[in-house]
Every structure is written in structure tokens, then in C-alpha cells.
Specification:
263 residues, seven-stranded mixed beta sheet, 7 strands, globular
Amino acid sequence: MAVVAHDIHGPAGAPTVLLSSGLGGAAAFWKPQTEALVAAGWRVIAYDQRGTGRTGGTLPTPYGIAHMAGDVRELLDATQTASCHLVGHALGGLVGLQLALDAPGRVASLALVNAWSRPNPHSARCFDARLALLAAGGARAYCEAQPIFLYPADWCAAHPARVQAEVDHAVAHFPGEGTMRARIAALRAFDVDAQLARIAVPVWVSAAQDDALVPWTCSQRLAEGLPRAELHRLPHGGHAHSVTRAEAFNTALLAFLAQHTTP
């Protein structure tokens, strides 16, 4: 299969930060971080995951997080990137964990944003509800509910036009029910809890305590199970706190990256 669609920003000779999105899969999710990272001198790669956005295409059957990590390895090869600092949001964080297990030499550090190491019953309930909406009401019903899981209620209420524009964009670019179900099944099956001790790279674990989709205690478990992890915790910001609290998030992320490489 062809290499996933991607964008490269920043100076060619600088150390690379690779940005891996959550369930939506789009490189555009990382716009607030891309700008901050490039301004700080990093080379940045962001990509649209297979089955989504500009990459599109059909997914293998069965489909798992290991396939997604394989796509990242191919992307690193195609962009002549020996290793990267991988920043992953939710599903994207799972991709980072899998890549660190499968190809440890390709990962210099990990930044895991509202990610997890094993399934939990609360998130399972949320995905059951989202899949029921998809089955009963199609893409529009599924996408209209998405901000409830991504953002705090007060942030949604304060940014109604932006939220609606995101919903409409998601509907217009919906990857199809089959692809969405396969991607959700992959993240729901992910479980590397017993392997965390094998991941030796520095890890920054970032969580918002008001995340409605993934309990922040999942990030706490990651920080406790990974040998070289630190937990960054915000009281407010929701599942997508890299968007809603971008300034605080970027400051902490850049500080972590600076500890391990000077661009």
C-alpha cells in the first residue's frame, strides 16, 4: 500500500516530532502544536491515518493497532527519518506505544495524550453508545455527538460556531461506517498493559481530569507502569485538551522535548 498522506514542516536537519491523531485520524488536529513546534525549531511530520482524510483507502481485515504502527514505520522510511519523538492523542498514543514495542530504535521519546494501556469499562460504554448512534442515525448523528466526548461542556457552549463547523466537516469527510467500526474495534482490543516495562524511552503522559471519554486514571496507570514516565495532569480541558488548553499543553510538551533533544 502507498505511504499515508503527510505534511512536513520546519527545518530539514532538525530532530523530528511525529504527530499521530486520535480516532479522527487527521493531521489537521495538530495545528496548534505544529505551529508551536516549528516556531521552537523542530521538524514536524503530521499525517492522515489509513482509511481517513487524504489517505483514505480500505483497511486490512482483521485490523489492529499494529497495522497503524506499521504505517508509521513506512512513513519514517519514506521521509528518511531514522527516529522520532512521537506525540500521540488517544488512539495515536496507542500507535506510539505499539511502535515503541515493535521498533524501539525508531522512537526517541513518547508523548501520550489521554491514552491507555488496556481497555476500561467506562470507555467501552462510551463507544457502545457512539456505535449505536452510528447504526441508528448514520454519520450525522455520530458526528453531532462527537464534541460531547471531545470537549468540556463550557468550552462547547463558548465556541458554538467552531464546534458546528467541525461537526459539519466531519460529516462531509466521514470515512464510512465500515472503516469507523474497524478503527474503533482496533482501539478497543488494544492491551499492552503487561508489556509496559519493555518501553525504555522517556515518556510524557498528559491527561485532563475532566476527560469524559477516557478516565484520567488510565494515564496514571501508564505513568506508573512505564519505567521512564512523568505524568502531566490538567484539571480541565476534556479529551482534546491539546486543543482547548493549547497554550498550557504546548508549554509542557516543549519543556519535555527540550529535556531530551535540543533542536
